[in-house]
Specification:
- The structure holds 2 protein chains of 2 kinds.
- Chain A is an all-alpha fold.
- Chain A is built from 13 helices and no strands.
- Chain A has a single domain, classed as Orthogonal Bundle (MetI-like fold).
- In chain A, helix 5 packs across helix 12, helix 7 crosses helix 9 and helix 9 runs antiparallel to helix 11.
- Chain A is globular.
- Chain A starts with 15 loop residues before the first helix and ends with a helix.
- The N terminus of chain A is likely disordered.
- Chain B contains 13 helices and no strands.
- The longest helix of chain B has 35 residues.
- Chain B has one domain: MetI-like fold (Orthogonal Bundle).
- Chain B is globular.
- Helix content of chain B is 81%, strand content 0%.
- Classes of the chains: A mainly alpha, B mainly alpha.
- Chains A and B meet through helix 2, helix 4, helix 5, helix 8 and helix 9 of A and helix 1, helix 2, helix 3, helix 4 and helix 8 of B.
C-alpha cells in the first residue's frame, strides 16, 4: 500500500505480439497518425522553436547564463539570507502539512462510504429512506469538498490567500494546508475504505458499538498508512513551499524571485543550492521517521 | 477490554526515542508557528472578513459569457499543448540519461560481467558515465519547474515556449530516474536465457530488456503527462503562457468571477486528461 505503484512485477507481462497482435494494423496506423497530428498541432500552438534551441547561438546564450551563475555567492549576508529562507520554507511545509492533516482528519470520516452509510457497520440497520439519506448527504458534501480543495493547485490557493491575508509565509501555510488537506483526505479515505473487515467483525461479535469499532478495529489498522502518506506529502510540500514565494508567499521562493528579477545570478545559484540541500534533508528525515515510526 | 485496548494501542514501552521525538516535534511546532506568523484571527477581523466576503461574493456567478469563454479557448489549448510537448521533451531527455544511469546496464550485471572483469580502467570510465548521468538527472529534478520556468522566461522570453522547456527539463529529471529504476527492476532470467543462446548486447536489450520495461514506461510517462497538465496550467503565473497567466491577470484585476470560470475550465481539463490517459493505459 505504501510503496509507489509505479514498478510492478514483470513476471506477468504478456508478449508484445499478444498485446498488439489482436488489433488490426489499420487501427495502429490510425493511432500513430493521431499521435503525430497532435504532435504537430501542439508544436505550432506552443510556439516551439527547436531549431532555435539547438542552434549555436542559443547554445552560446545558455553557456553565458551558466557562466553568470558561477561562482555562487557565499558571502555572509547571502548565506544568512538563504538560511533564513530555508528555515522559513521548512516552517511553511511543516505547518502546512500539519494543517492538512487536521483538515483531512476532520473531513475524511464523513467521506468514506464504509464508515458513514454502507458496509459491515450498517448491515443490521433497516434501510430506511430518510435515515439513509441523512447519512449519504454528509458523505456527498464531504466528498465534493475534498474534490474542490484538491482540484485547485497550491499556487492558485497561494494567490487567493495572498489576496485575503496579505504577503508573507502565512498565506503559504494556508495554501499548502488547504490543497494538501484535499489530497490527504482522498488518500486517507481510500485507506479507510480498504480496511480489513475481519477485526471489525470480531469486534462486532463481542458487542462493541460503532465508536468502539472505529477506535479499536479501524484506527489501529489505518494509522501506519496515514503516517506514511503524511510523510510522503511532506516531501512533496517542501518542494512546493520552496517556490510558493514566487507568488508572494514567503520562504526561499521570495528570495529567488528577487534574485532573478534583479539579475543577481550568483545569489540565485546559492539559493538553488539551498533548495537542493533542504529537499535532500527533508527526504532523509522523512525516510528516517518512516522507518522509526512504522 | 482495558487490557485489550492497551495491547492494541501499545502505549506501554516508551523509549528514549519517543520522548526525544515528542520534544523535537513540539519545539519545531512552536518555532514554525511563530516564524510563519500564523494568525487565524485574520479571518474574523473586520478587514479579513471583508476581503473574504468580497472574494466569495465576487466569484458568483462565474463569468460564462461567450466573450470571455472564447477568450479562454486559446490559453486552454495552449496549456494542453505545453504539457504535451513538455512531456515529449522530458522523454527525450529522460530516456537516454535514464539508460546511462542504470547501474545494471552500464556497470554491473550480466551484460558487463564478462567484459569488464579485469579491466579496471574501463570499469572506472563506465562508472563515471553512470555517476554523471545520475548527477545531471538529480540536478534537473531538484530545481523546481517554477524556477526553471522563471529562468527560461529570462532566456527565451515570455510565452508558452519557456513553459515547454521548464516542464521538459524538470520532468526529464524525474522520468530519467524512474526509467532507470524500472530498468533495474526487470526480471533477469530472460536476459540470461538470451545471453546463453548467444545474443549480443543490442539483441539482449531489445528482446529481453525493453519489452519488459515498456508497459511501466508508458504508464509512468502518462502519469507524468497528467502532472504536466496541472503544472503547465499554473506555470503562467511566472509568465510562461497557458491558463496561469489568465488566472494571475484576473486575480490582479479582482475579477473573481473570471477566476472561478478558469478554475472550472481547469477542473474539466484535468478530468478530461485523466480520462484520456486512463483510456490509453487500458489499451496497453
Amino acid at each position: 500500500m505504501n510503496e509507489t505503484p509505479v514498478i510492478k512485477t514483470c513476471d506477468t507481462i504478456p508478449l508484445a505480439k499478444e498485446r498488439f497482435g489482436a488489433r488490426s494494423t489499420f487501427k495502429n496506423w490510425l493511432i500513430l497518425a493521431f499521435f503525430v497530428g497532435f504532435l504537430t498541432w501542439s508544436y505550432r500552438g506552443a510556439g516551439i522553436h527547436l531549431s532555435q534551441l539547438f542552434s549555436l547561438d542559443s547554445f552560446e546564450q545558455i553557456l553565458i547564463y551558466i557562466n553568470k551563475l558561477f561562482p555562487p555567492d557565499f558571502s555572509a549576508v547571502v548565506i544568512q539570507e538563504a538560511l533564513k529562507g530555508a528555515i522559513e520554507t521548512f516552517a511553511i511545509s511543516f505547518m502546512g502539512t500539519l494543517m492538512a492533516v487536521v483538515i483531512a482528519l476532520s473531513i475524511v470520516f464523513f467521506a468514506s462510504r464504509n464508515l458513514i452509510y454502507s458496509g459491515l457497520l450498517y448491515e443490521m440497520e433497516p434501510q430506511q429512506g430518510w435515515k439513509r439519506a441523512a447519512r449519504i448527504l454528509p458523505y456527498l458534501v464531504a466528498k465534493s469538498l475534498l474534490n474542490i480543495l484538491r482540484t485547485i493547485p497550491e499556487m492558485v490557493w497561494a494567490l487567493i490567500f495572498v489576496f485575503l491575508v496579505g504577503l508573507g509565509p502565512f498565506p503559504g501555510v494556508l495554501a499548502l494546508g488547504v490543497h494538501t488537506g484535499g489530497v490527504l483526505g482522498k488518500l486517507f479515505g481510500e485507506v479507510l475504505e480498504n480496511v480489513d473487515n475481519q477485526p471489525i467483525e470480531s469486534l462486532q461479535a463481542t458487542g462493541a458499538n460503532r465508536l468502539q469499532i472505529l477506535f479499536y478495529g479501524i484506527v489501529p489498522q489505518v494509522l501506519p498508512h496515514f503516517i506514511s502518506y503524511t510523510l510522503y506529502r511532506w516531501e512533496v510540500n517542501i518542494r512546493v513551499a520552496a517556490v510558493l514565494g514566487l507568488v508572494g508567499a514567503g520562504g526561499l521562493g521570495q528570495r529567488i524571485h528577487i534574485a532573478i528579477s534583479l539579475f543577481l545570478e550568483n545569489q540565485l545559484l546559492t539559493l538553488i543550492i539551498a533548495i537542493y540541500l533542504l529537499v535532500t534533508l527533508v527526504d532523509y528525515l522523512s525516510a528516517y521517521l518512516r522507518r522509526k515510526v512504522i | 477490554m482495558n487490557q485489550q485496548a492497551q495491547l492494541l494501542t501499545r502505549p506501554s514501552h516508551r523509549s528514549f526515542f519517543s520522548y526525544l521525538f515528542t520534544a523535537l516535534f513540539l519545539l519545531t511546532l512552536v518555532d514554525s508557528w511563530q516564524r510563519t506568523g500564523i494568525d487565524l484571527r485574520v479571518f474574523f477581523e473586520a478587514k479579513g472578513r471583508d476581503a473574504l466576503w468580497k472574494f466569495l461574493t465576487g466569484m458568483f456567478p462565474p463569468d460564462l459569457s461567450w466573450n470571455f469563454l472564447s477568450l479562454m479557448l486559446r490559453p486552454t489549448l495552449e496549456t494542453i499543448q505545453i504539457s504535451f510537448w513538455g512531456t515529449v521533451i522530458a522523454v527525450m531527455i529522460g530516456f537516454p540519461l535514464g539508460l546511462l544511469g542504470t547501474n545494471t546496464l552500464i556497470v554491473r550485471g550480466i551484460l558487463n560481467e564478462a567484459e569488464l572483469q579485469g579491466a579496471p580502467v574501463r570499469r572506472g570510465l563506465r562508472y563515471l558515465v553512470y555517476v554523471l548521468a545520475r548527477g545531471i538527472l538529480s540536478l534537473f529534478r531538484c530545481i523546481p519547474e517554477f524556477v526553471w520556468a522563471f529562468m527560461f522566461v529570462r532566456a527565451v522570453g515570455l510565452g508558452p515556449f519557456p513553459g515547454v522547456l521548464a516542464i521538459g527539463v524538470a520532468y526529464g529529471g524525474m522520468l530519467g530516474k524512474v526509467y532507470s529504476e524500472i530498468f533495474e527492476g526487470v526480471n533477469y532470467r530472460p536476459l540470461e536465457a538470451l545471453q546463453s543462446i548467444g545474443a549480443n548486447k543490442l539483441q539482449i536489450f531489445f528482446y529481453g530488456w525493453f519489452p519488459q520495461a515498456l508497459p511501466n514506461f508508458v504508464s509512468y510517462t502518462l502519469y507524468r503527462w497528467e502532472c504536466a497538465v496541472r503544472a503547465s496550467a499554473i506555470l503562467g503565473l511566472v509568465g510562461a503562457g497557458g491558463l496561469g497567466q489568465q488566472i494571475e491577470i484576473s486575480m490582479r484585476m479582482f475579477n473573481f468571477n473570471e477566476v472561478l470560470t478558469i478554475l472550472i475550465i481547469l477542473f474539466l481539463m484535468v478530468a478530461g486528461v485523466d480520462y484520456l490517459s486512463a483510456k490509453v493505459r487500458a489499451l496497453l
